[in-house]
Design a protein that fits this description.
single chain, about 80% helix
């Protein structure tokens, strides 16, 4: 059995940070605090986008290359395709939730919009939970020393961390905290 790689650990920790951010959004929804809902939702959306970018640009190409070397991993490209579909779903649905919150600020109707936003967020979290399990159990495990030498693993980790540190301009002050 191979130990959990630093890449696996880093991305799993990012999942936990994202779980915390979405929990804060639900708390703001429970409190019916429109400003906090928007702030937390927007930050969750941005951070999830950063995570997805790291996977698409850095991790998934490495995983596809690893899978191409082994017949035992022939199903991996299809799994990655499904994960990409999930990513599209998350970003599209969260964009809808952000739009709904902007309508609250423009037109009021808070109670109805909070129900809409909660429903969208619940659907995202339900799918995200299964999605993260697949990543952690079937994809991140390929980042072990069985498939990557130390230099390749360190380079991949550095590139993933670089993507995870690239905050949108509106959140750069948060990145320094």
């Amino acid at each position: 059995m191979h130990r959990i790689s630093k890449i696996h650990e880093r991305l799993e920790n990012d999942h936990a940070e994202l779980d915390d951010l979405v929990a804060r959004t639900f708390t703001a929804l429970d409190d019916a605090d429109a400003a906090r809902i928007f702030e937390n939702l927007d930050y969750f959306w941005a951070r999830l986008g950063m995570h997805i970018r790291a996977e698409h640009l850095r991790l998934f190409p490495a995983v596809r290359e690893i899978a191409s070397r082994s017949q035992e991993l022939a199903a991996i490209p299809k799994i990655l395709d499904r994960l990409r579909e999930d990513h599209d779903f998350f970003m599209t649905e969260l964009a809808r939730a952000i739009k709904a919150m902007r309508l609250v600020f423009s037109f009021g109707n808070e109670a109805e919009m909070f129900v809409v936003v909660r429903g969208i967020l619940e659907a995202v979290v339900e799918r995200l939970t299964e999605h993260n399990d697949i990543e952690e159990e079937q994809i991140y495990t390929l980042m072990s020393d069985e498939f990557l030498d130390d230099d390749s693993a360190e380079q991949l980790l550095a590139s993933v961390q670089k993507e995870l540190a690239r905050y949108p301009a509106r959140f750069e002050s948060r990145s320094k905290q």
